[in-house]
Amino acid sequence: MRILGIDPGTVNMGWGIIEANGAHTTYVACGVLKQKSGSDMGQRLLFFFNELIDIINEYIPEVCAVESPFVGENIRSAFTLGKAQGVAILAASYKGLRVVEYAPNLVKQRLSGYGHSSKEQIQAMLLLLLNMESLPKQTDSTDALAIALCHHMQEHIDGVIPKGH
Known about the structure:
By secondary structure, this protein is α/β, with parallel strands linked by helices. Helix content is 49%, strand content 22%.
């Protein structure tokens, strides 16, 4: 199964694709879609939509895992990120992909066993689990890979443990 992970943002949107076959996972591609923070929000969101469509057309994932916004002290920031998340969900749905959302703490929990792991701990697990020699320099793309890998792990858990138990 090919999984597209998306780390939504209104200036930088990370994306990552992995291939999962049973317990075996491999890195396929990743990157960051970048816009200027002062530019028109509508134009930025349209750019992200079009770029995600191109990525989906090129890599043909079967499912899209999107990180849900973290609602901490700054609710305005969560609402703004929700716009980018909505665009990611729309692009994936437009292309017929199943879309699932994961909270940041669940992504960390699945990858490291601890929901408050550091970025460095998550990156170390990505290197190990995706058998990569090095990680991309942009953390938005590594976050997206972590989200894709979280989905694969969650699917495995759901297959082993029946729902409702």
